[in-house]
Design a protein that fits this description.
The protein is of the alpha/beta class. The chain has helices at 4-11, 15-25, 28-31, 86-105, 165-169, 174-182, 187-203, 211-224, 238-274, 278-320, 325-332, 336-345, 352-357; strands spanning 40-42, 57-63, 69-77, 116-122, 156-159. It has a five-stranded mixed β-sheet, with no helix packed on it. It is flat and about 85 Å long.
Length: 360
Amino acid sequence: MTDHDAIYHRLFSHPEMVADLLHHFLDPALVSSLDCSRMKRMNTKFTAQSGERRRGDIVWEIPTNHGDSVYVLLILEFQSGIDEWMVLRLNVYCGLLYQQLVDERQLKGTDGLPPILPIVLYNGKPRWNAASSLQEVIRLPEHSTLWKYQPQLRYHVVDEGRFPEETLKKRDSLMAIFMRMECPADIQSLTAACEDLVTWFATHPDGPPLKGLFRELIITNLERLGKVDSTRILPEELEEVVAMCSYDIRDLIKDHVDKVTAGIAEDMKRQAAADMKRQVAADVERQVADMKRQVAADMERQGELKGKIQILLKMMQRRFGTLPDWVDQKITQADSASLDEWGLNMMDAQSLDTVFSGHS
């Protein structure tokens, strides 16, 4: 099985993923002064209590519009439970980071220290409820004169499972799709997120080179859900893996529908037999057969329509380059007949407008 934690670390070792996280899941007022285009990763020397170097902690130095820098301390928290002493751990890491900056850059007292923005990215199932500031865990009366001598630290937590799926779907964000993949409501939600991931990369050709890592992440999630055998040979391209998984999931859904409808049929047949109403049992059989045909037909139509949409988008991107938002919206909302017509228009269309008008 692929190392899920290592994939996380490699993903957030890319500045584009960190910038996406900051811009879409932090206070805009906080991020507005940061120049993420010039962010640089810092090689830290943090260690765990066991003495092993931690690989779940990443530090990025981000210049600000004011000429100085902010250090984003990103903690990747993979544990199934909640670390109640996270704020204390972060306090230690911030101290270590400051000491490293003083030593490596030979800072003097007059130079001062740069600000640190601690962020915890958490993917566990229980919702995060640990103290977010040192003040919450220090035992002192509210008006004690000792408060001014106590250390102060607060961190921001991004609890992936706290965001509703529908809210994430509305964001044009690779990070939002990533969070849907990490905390899916069910296997269908995971499949939809993977398909949206393919669409995101297709509509962002200049996006970060992360397809390979997302492919590994999808496979790891499917292995954890028991939907993919670890010995199975899988395609190398992200799009092919997603397409394969989509077909597999449709088969699983069809099997589930067959089992559910078969169960309903058996229950209704027993009731009919008990009531000695043979005609009712026969009617139930016909209803179940119709239900199966309807479900199969609906699934086939949906799959065919989605396939047509993806093919037409790819053809138009190859013909005309990057597509404006109105084209993407028009195609994704179209019916099958319109897609067929526009596909034929593509043969001799000279512009996007003529694809949809039908006049070359």
